[in-house]
User: Fold these one by one.
Assistant:
Number 1:
Amino acid sequence: MQRTLNLSMIDYYFQVTPIVALLGPRQCGKATLALEYATQHAAVTHFDCENPMHLLRLENPMLALQDIGGLIIIDGVQLKPNLFPILRVLIDRNRDKQRYLLLGSASRDLIQHSSEILAGRISYFELTPFTLLETNDVKKLWLRGGFPLSYLAKTNSISMTWRQEYIKTFLERDIPNLGIRVAPHTLRRFWMMLLSYHGNILNASDLGRSLGFSHTAINHYLDILSGTFMMRVLRPWFENMSKRQVKAPKLYFRDSGIMHTLLGVSTMEELNNNARLGASWEGFAMEEVIRRSQVDENSCYFWATHADAELDLIIFKNDKRFGFEFKYSDSPKITKSMKIALSDLKLDSLTVVIPTDASFLLDEKIFVSGLNDVSFS
């Protein structure tokens, strides 16, 4: 499945900076995309930091890279954070003859200060697992999640087994490879507890008491899961008003398939009968809307007061405020909370996203839309 939009985005970022970091969870398709991009270039050199022979060459990165021209792809760059100072020197010397495409399975915050070392020389582009625009099958994508090998599996059972192995490898190999020392069973236990917080406001003290962890440990584990693209920490928006507003973040599993695996859900029938059905839809649909908006996390928030109103998602784009509610219903109604959010936040529109293809107007600025028809106009 060719991901044309993502290929064009890499081209765009190379017009901005000579280094592009393609970041995203392991197995989301970064290497495949990089190889597709490489076919457009005559001179390409590829290093894989999980290949012992390539690692040996990169033991002396200045010697290995200084005379290479064209596109240089370095996969697994999170395993070699010591490369970044060398890349700064090399790109300043060879800006006209070298371009670097770095692939990483951790956020820039976890890749040891690359943003500071390479400031002005690097752009960051997050590649997500498959989206609805790429697959056009809401139910299958929602159930299995967007990881290519999970989504494309021949059966739901094979998909589920792949995700179970993915989670095991993530906890037992990927996290230690980042230099993070957390026992796999401890992080898995914490991750399982977050199932009950999906779509809810985080109370770190309550969660810590439930697990017997300190507040510091809770924040550390959450940083790990958000920094490896497993969890979304959605921050609250504060409006200048007299109402008391919620200041703690909300948590979401970023891939619905991973969430369903931890829930033990492998079929649509099981999902339809699960108590977390509505919360699962909210997280899945929210992630799709954020991806479609093509804005970064600093433009996405939720809003809630301690009394009478909340909004699942507010996105700031093109000097407009777009509000979203996510309802697992085919006939949502206007609520008091929607009216308050529309007024207090001065929204340009409020869209209620539902799991059907129906689209209709509820009020002058309140729309109901299927996930396929969400727009930012």
Note: The first strand starts at residue 19 and ends at 23.
Number 2:
Amino acid sequence: MKTQKALLYLEDGTLFEGLGFGVEGECLGEVVFNTSMTGYQEVLTDPSYAGQVVVMTQPEIGNYGINSEDDESRKPFVEGFVVRQCSPIFSNWRGEKTLDDYLRENSIPGIAEIDTRALVRHIREGGAMRGIISRDDFDLQSLGRKVHEHPPMEGSDYVRSVTVTETYTWPAENPRFRVVAYDFGIKTNILRCLAGRGCDLTVVPAVTSAEDVLALDPDGIFLSNGPGDPEPLQYIVENFRKLIGKKPIFGICLGHQLLALALGGKTYKLKFGHRGGNQPVKNLINSKVEITTHNHGFAVDPDSLKNTEIQITHMNLNDQTLEGFRHRYLPVFSVQYHPEASPGPHDSFYLFDDFIRLMKEGADA
């Protein structure tokens, strides 16, 4: 693995020096951290990371390589990758290439051999912030200028950069229901989970109108995960308002936030977000605790849903952020976390079954 000096410069002036890997050059984005011990390929290919430089807290990354089966989307979407140690070799029967080769092929810069513990602690204290990885520009004034000229995550629409441009289908082996899935950055395993339960899927671009969705006559509508700030996405929220009450709706992650906005709620930016496969969430309906996977920097304000027809169903036990809600009278529900990611490993699969139940009840009505 060819290495050379690399810098990570944060917008508050903090500097980390390490060794570069992946493609040469530089990248800009919001610097965030993920606490998962495995799954770096899934992290790299999760479109919800668009616009972000991801720091892995697990100290050794790349030791089981990259394979062609574990991608969560058509390509990696992170802007850059930060690790303590990037393994130059891999040892796994499924491995096909090194992490370094994979990042080079996909034009993503990385930096290794820095103190990721210190970096994560700094982000926890100061919050997620913009940063730059550079392997050719070491002038601090130049780096600082580039970082401060880069648009912040708040107010930016990253969905348009990750959504598909054309509708496509994902058939079920034993189809029972027709589902339209909005792609705001949808992950492949979500499609597998729905298709495995008999859902014939039509995946549509984020800009698809409510009228076009209803013209497909689905049994249910799925709202996917995705990157960035939900507030600028009013063109999506307006479509949701036309769909609520027409068909059963299930949303996760960004879909959850956008659904809350459509129902009159508000969102806000978390200090450093939730990213990892070890987040405890309490189901307030049955008092069970689920170990869940998260990837979000924004959350729904629970106070904004008070005195409405919304029931809060899930709460994060680390910081009491809202993790799920449902409509009291309409077949509409959502969660902030990723039930398809299986950290529990099966704690949250029931949510897909709940969606199936709502569609079945609608078909029988």
Note: The chain has two domains: 4-149, 159-364.
Number 3:
Amino acid sequence: MIVEPKSKGFICTTAHPTGCCKNVEEQIEYAKKAGESFAADKEKTWKKVLIIGASTGYGLASRIAAAFTCKADTIGVMFERPAAGKRTATAGWYNTQAFDKMAKEAGLYSKSVNGDAFSDETKKEVIETIKKDLGKVDLVIYSLAAPRRTASDGNSYTSVLKTVDEEFTTKSLNLNNNEVITATLEPATQEEIEGTVKVMGGEDWELWIDALKEADALEKDALTIAYSYIGPELTYPIYFSGTIGQAKKHVLETSNRINGKYADVKAYVSVNKAVVTQSSSAIPAVPLYLSIMYRVMKEQKLHEGCIEQMVRLFTEKLATEEVPVDEEGRIRLDDWEMKPEVQEAIMKVWDEVSTENVEELCDIKGYWDDFFRMFGFRMPGVDYKKDVEI
């Protein structure tokens, strides 16, 4: 069938199998090239890596960087939907199929487990796979983003994008027509805050590390990393100080708990750069901020996507005698985004931008290109008029 993008706002309900494959292939080529100059025999490198949340965005890029830059064996965990009738599979399903195929062709071990990463059953299946095929893993990446979670006690929790304490009004971008609008976020209830922390906080990350340690599936001096975001002050009420920010603070607290609990496991939080994702597209102000940031960082030759960030994480941050961190112990991959000259240029545009000049002042095309490429569309070299097997 011919697959076309069907989207409304930040939701895209179709994915293109050939385009997704091309997207993965391009990231792999970047990671391979980086691997040519990366000393694979460095004292600090990784050979057996578990990625929890491995099918899109930073999780997928982490898996690609581990495999094709560091030549690591990888196990990826994801929760994706295959095609059914005329309904395409999710982009993450196609991404994973492409990764597994290309890893096999490169002689690399890869195993993908499609299941609910929050569940005890999936943890058990993954640990059994580690023990059977790899023995132990030396790096665990936790890159899970989900709207809801069913905990092992049977209770269900939902995450929300809201402020804490008081409502907040800001500029935003209407994704249906690229109009600059005013958006207001209502404050969350205490139950909503707690639910968001349950879903997006560090509790499940810690449960994974506990289960891996109990099963003796972690190498001595293993590393584990969870991903986070801080952002500029203009988005603080929505993100850093909002419900998601409360969850990310819990992730940082969890890293400290893991470090205190296990002498032979080192846990870090990596604060990454803002990129276009389906979840970030749902946050008021963020799409507008991203489209401005894209323009500024491209002009200053500092722009990075997920794969560039993850290759830099592996080669410049982790493969060092001592992992560089900030005063709170966090790895800062958002260091280029938060450069004063970048933020000053962004704020200048932010104050000036309106519906009338948004196309001129912002990289709207770059934003939408990245959005649709998440689902396999707008990839150079792909014939979208051609019938494909979904």
Note: Residues 7-147+158-163+190-282+304-339 form a domain with the Rossmann fold fold (CATH 3.40.50.720).
Number 4:
Amino acid sequence: MPTNDGYYEAYWPRTPRQTGIKPLAPRLKSLEGRTVAYLWDYIFRGDEIFGYLEKGLKARYPGVRFVSYTEFGNIHAGKEKEVLAALPQRLKELQVDAVICGMAC
């Protein structure tokens, strides 16, 4: 009767990475004169929190402009694949410079 002496073969359940690591986009030096879009999963109080963020950012950067999460739709629901697939084009159309994604993105 063969014994393994407590040693068992194990396999990693994930496949090898399919894409390489990509560099991050450079940070904006300022939000002054920029357009910031909100993305939301409609789960936790984003409608309230985005209001506070907007007030604080407008005080610091008076020329900042915001695009509501309602322009994009729910990024975590039945149509999330369609919403996310359309996102790059929609961001270009709205001339968005930066995105704030909340709450559980």
Note: Strands lie at 35-40, 65-67, 98-102.
